[in-house]
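re: ur question from yesterday

yeah so i grabbed the chain u mentioned. its 189 aa long if i counted rite. heres the sequnce exactly as i have it in my notes:
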Amino acid sequence: MPIPADKTRPAERMLAAGTLPVAATLLTGTVALYITLVAFGNITDFDSNQQYVRHVLAMDTTFKDDDLMWRAVRSTALQDTAYVAIIVWETLAALILLTATALWARALRRPVGLRRARRAGTIGLLMVLVLFGAGFIGVGGEWFAMWQSEDWNGLDAATRVVTLAGIVLVVTHLPSAGAPADGTEGRES
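ran it thru and got these structure tokens back, copy pasting raw so excuse formatting
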């Protein structure tokens, strides 16, 4: 005879939800914490990364190849607008990932919420991937030749974030052993 849900301990209920939802919760929470701290740092210590964005866009620490320097953005107003846009994007991604983490945690108790948690997490993780992959690696690293700078090169850090967010995205989309194969798992009405 099965034990009624209200008689089980919280740890047993969490483990009964399966290891993938637990992993998705913790991993999404890790990225949420990271991007929240990044956004918070950029808001409370605005000047530090403002200088980073200005130097990358100005291309003033690159090889100064005439074939590339036409790409440089020298207007501090445009540089600062780009930096504020980055902070807004980080903040939105943080809020979405914090929400996704809460939804994943709730889904550990009520699996009907798995789809909503996965959707929210996917949106937040894709926002992080777009910012660090397309934004910092693609646009900053290649278009603005950030890879040439010894002083203002954020490619290693961006690569770490893309790797982490990409792994978390894959984990959150792995099929769970307890989920039906027909895709009806956690349907919300």
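noticed a couple things. The helical segments are 10-16, 19-44, 46-58, 76-109, 114-143, 155-172. also Residues 108 and 141 are 40 Å apart (CA to CA).
anyway ttyl
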